């Protein structure tokens, strides 16, 4: 089972450098260090078979199976030498059982002991033994080193993809220092739970999965009850669903518990479980003390009436029903007069008949948005120029609309547009107290620009204006 978010978008203006650094560190460790494991293992294997160890170890191995590992008898009888030599080379349990006996025997056994210790030193130079986490014999270098080791390209790339998917948003929300600290803390917590469950095991654990699971828990804590879209696979089935981020945590935890009882034996499921819980709990505690940074979340909410109307209009348009689409746009615009997407769609659909009343009304709806302080004026200002160039008589630019537009243009310091609108008002023989003040603003603008000729013309225009009602 796989469940991953498919809609959280990071803010690339603040690149998540720690997340990228962790990915780079894991890649470099694998390419520059772990790539030498093959040569190290070959040297250990060649030493083993060139020595007298195979003949000496064989008899003691069956004694070890009879006394310590009776469950191996069937495997030893069925697989024969292949199973035996696999254990002689890899099993640290056999080595740790044999060495004390050889130390006690003394005499000729000392040469056997020396060969065994030399082979163990060569074998333990492998990355998984040198820096892996062994529950029966944990070391400081193993506690941290195992987070940067991987068993193959598929293991490495899988972990790095998940780190990228979840880490980008989490680092931007918590900050680089907290993200790195909780990443390492989550990895240590994952290692702690694994050691508790697998206490006494001599099998080393490697992989960033525990720390990456902690990042997944951190992700859930950061997004909380906000609804996100997720992609899932379950066997051969796959699809999408939307849910609060908090709801996927028990699914992830349940997956690890199920995997422990019914999955592969070579996966540290409890490390994943521990990382998820540690990442979630630590981040929740951090957020209570220090709120996370603002992050952009596109919540998967039901469509609004405005969105439904726009979708219906676009559907009619895509099916070539332009008349019906135009009528639907006009009707929707009456219900949502401040919807810029609907206004734009109405202008587009009525543009086939630029002199129609519907087209002028669509432009009038756009110009009316100038009264809204939160509305970006740049698009409205560009619309005035487009509208005047597209129609023979811009009927939507009524005297009242021109005054509203001129006032907003003055606040936005778009004096060229103010001058154009004042000229239209003059052509319509309009007079209003605001016109003189706006004209004086145009005069000051040209003076600041050093254009005295245009400043003089604007001053003459301002003096000619006499206040009267529109």
Automatic annotation (TrEMBL):
GO terms for biological process: proteolysis. It holds the Pfam family Rhomboid. SUPFAM superfamilies: Rhomboid-like. InterPro entries: Peptidase_S54_rhomboid_dom (IPR022764), Rhomboid-like_sf (IPR035952), Rhomboid_protease_S54 (IPR050925). It comes from Microbulbifer agarilyticus. Residues 142-287 form the Peptidase S54 rhomboid domain. GO terms for cellular component: membrane. It is a multi-pass membrane protein. Keywords: Hydrolase, Membrane, Protease, Transmembrane, Transmembrane helix. It is found in: Membrane. Gene3D superfamilies: Rhomboid-like. The chain crosses the membrane at residues 15-33, 156-185, 205-223, 230-252, 267-287. This is Rhomboid family intramembrane serine protease. GO terms for molecular function: serine-type endopeptidase activity. Belongs to the peptidase S54 family.
């Amino acid at each position: 089972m796989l469940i991953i978010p498919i809609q959280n978008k990071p803010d690339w203006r603040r690149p998540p450098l720690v997340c990228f650094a962790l990915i780079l560190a894991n890649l470099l460790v694998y390419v520059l260090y772990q790539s030498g494991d093959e040569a190290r293992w070959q040297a250990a294997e060649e030493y083993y078979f060139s020595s007298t160890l195979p003949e000496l170890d064989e008899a003691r191995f069956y004694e070890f199976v009879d006394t310590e590992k009776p469950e191996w008898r069937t495997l030893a009888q069925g697989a024969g030498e292949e199973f035996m030599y696999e254990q002689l080379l890899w099993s640290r349990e056999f080595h740790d059982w044999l060495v004390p006996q050889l130390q006690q025997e003394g005499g000729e056994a000392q040469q056997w002991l020396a060969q065994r210790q030399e082979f163990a030193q060569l074998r333990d130079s492998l990355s998984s033994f040198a820096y892996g986490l062994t529950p029966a014999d944990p070391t400081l270098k193993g506690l941290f080193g195992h987070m940067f080791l991987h068993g193959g390209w598929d293991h490495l790339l899988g972990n790095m993809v998940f780190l990228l998917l979840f880490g980008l948003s989490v680092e931007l929300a918590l900050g680089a220092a907290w993200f790195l600290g909780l990443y390492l803390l989550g990895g240590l917590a994952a290692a702690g739970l694994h050691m508790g469950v697998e206490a006494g095991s001599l099998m080393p654990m490697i992989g960033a999965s525990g720390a990456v699971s902690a990042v997944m828990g951190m992700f859930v804590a950061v997004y909380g009850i906000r609804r996100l879209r997720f992609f899932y696979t379950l066997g051969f089935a796959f699809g999408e669903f939307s849910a609060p981020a908090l709801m996927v945590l028990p699914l992830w935890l349940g997956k690890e518990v199920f995997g422990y009882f019914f999955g592969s034996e070579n996966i540290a499921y409890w490390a994943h479980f521990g990382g998820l819980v540690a990442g979630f709990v630590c981040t929740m505690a951090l957020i209570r003390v220090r709120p996370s940074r603002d992050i952009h979340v596109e919540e998967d909410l039901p469509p609004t009436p405005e969105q439904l109307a726009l979708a219906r209009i676009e559907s009619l348009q895509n099916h070539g029903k332009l008349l019906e689409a135009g009528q639907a746009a006009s009707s929707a615009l009456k219900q949502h007069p401040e919807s810029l997407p609907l206004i734009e769609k109405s202008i587009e659909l009525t543009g086939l008949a630029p002199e129609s009343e519907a087209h002028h009304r669509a432009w009038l709806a756009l110009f009316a948005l100038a009264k809204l302080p939160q509305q970006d004026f740049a698009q409205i200002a560009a619309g005035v120029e487009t509208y005047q160039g597209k129609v023979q008589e811009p009927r939507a630019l009524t005297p009242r609309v021109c005054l509203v537009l001129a006032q907003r243009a003055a606040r936005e310091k778009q004096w060229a547009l103010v001058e154009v609108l004042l000229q239209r008002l003059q052509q319509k023989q309009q007079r209003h107290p605001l016109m003189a003040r706006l004209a004086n603003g145009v005069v000051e603008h040209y003076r600041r620009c050093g254009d005295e000729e245009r400043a003089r013309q604007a001053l003459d225009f301002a003096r000619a204006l006499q206040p009267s009602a529109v």
